[in-house]
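in:
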């Protein structure tokens, strides 16, 4: 089952409204924002590959080893 943060990140990728967009274009770079809806806190980041960064975030959060203690805490509390 996906956590609420994972679902929010997946929704972020649907902005492009193109099937398989990130699978075809993995090297899209830019600035992104993750919003924890429950407490309205935000995390802003940038990446050379937003696609790869998404999976890095999820992996670190699941392992409890994200470098942002605030984002990790929110993930642990709200899922």
């Amino acid at each position: 089952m996906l956590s609420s943060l994972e679902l929010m990140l997946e929704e972020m990728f649907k902005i492009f409204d193109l099937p398989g967009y990130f699978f075809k274009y993995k090297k899209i770079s830019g600035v992104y924002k993750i919003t924890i809806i429950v407490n309205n806190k935000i995390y802003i980041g940038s990446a050379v590959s937003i696609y790869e960064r998404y999976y890095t975030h999820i992996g670190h959060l699941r392992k409890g080893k994200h470098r942002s203690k605030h984002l990790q805490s929110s993930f642990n509390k709200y899922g």
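note: The mean pLDDT is 78.
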